[in-house]
Amino acid sequence: MELSIVLPTYNERKNIEVLIPRIEQSLKRHSLKAEIIVVDDDSPDSTGEAARKLNKKYHNVVVMVRTGIKGIASAWLDGYGIARGKYIATMDADLCHNPEDLVRMCRKLPEYDFVIGSRHMPGSGGMQKDKTFIQLLASRIARKISSLLIGLHFTDPTHSFRVFKRDVFYSVRGKVNSQGNYFLAEFLFYAVRAGYKVAEVPITYGKRGYGRTKLNVWKEGIRFLAKALKLFVRSRMMRR
């Protein structure tokens, strides 16, 4: 297996019914072999069942439905844990990410160990779509915090659209314990600390397809700052 694509979901049935066929088309177009791992938190809209139906058509969709366990960070970790691919990718299930951009990101492998799809590099586009002023401001602040406090000097260190060698996951999994979207920054922090080479690729960030975002900007912002400060202290201690 060349690539494992992890899609955490909660009430994304309509979106994955569009996204997974798009991914399959891109894989076929570029002669890539991949599995698509849907990690669903027992969605009331039967997202998991929709994913199983798609597997009957494509035969490469792995479905994990979790009951009693909630949260995006643990969904990513569970998906990574069952991935069989040499490389592991993550995408949002809401249609904001373009599978063709994932193909371009994969071309940076194996030259790099870790590739992030950036919404803020020259050549990227679409970031303003479907985003409120508060969401855009929060994204900017998160990038500044990541750079100033924990030394992640990238244009989009908290973005979920990324692909990395499976070895990266095994190297950092015992160190990452954050909840929510700060998981992404912490995962990247420990990958950089371990000496893995990281690149960014400009991508086009689209508009959400169906439904509403589950992200609570204020809650995530407070959690992000607290975790960043904790990681800052830890990184200082590691230098001693």
Written description of the protein model:
The protein contains 8 helices and 7 strands; from the N terminus they run E-H-E-H-E-H-E-H-E-H-E-H-H-E-H. The chain has a single domain, classed as Spore Coat Polysaccharide Biosynthesis Protein SpsA, Chain A. It is of the alpha/beta class and 240 residues long. Helices cover 45% and strands 15% of the residues. It has helices spanning 13-29, 47-58, 72-82, 99-106, 133-150, 166-172, 182-193, 217-239; strands spanning 3-9, 34-40, 61-65, 87-90, 114-118, 162-165, 198-202. A 7-stranded mixed sheet has the order 3-2-1-4-6-5-7, with helices on both faces. Helix 1 packs parallel to helix 2 and helix 5 (133-150) packs parallel to helix 8.
Please give the structural blueprint:
Blueprint: E1 3-9, H1 13-29, E2 34-40, H2 47-58, E3 61-65, H3 72-82, E4 87-90, H4 99-106, E5 114-118, H5 133-150, E6 162-165, H6 166-172, H7 182-193, E7 198-202, H8 217-239
Parallel strand pairs: 1-2, 1-4, 2-3, 5-7
Antiparallel strand pairs: 4-6, 5-6
Helix pairs in contact: 1-2, 5-8
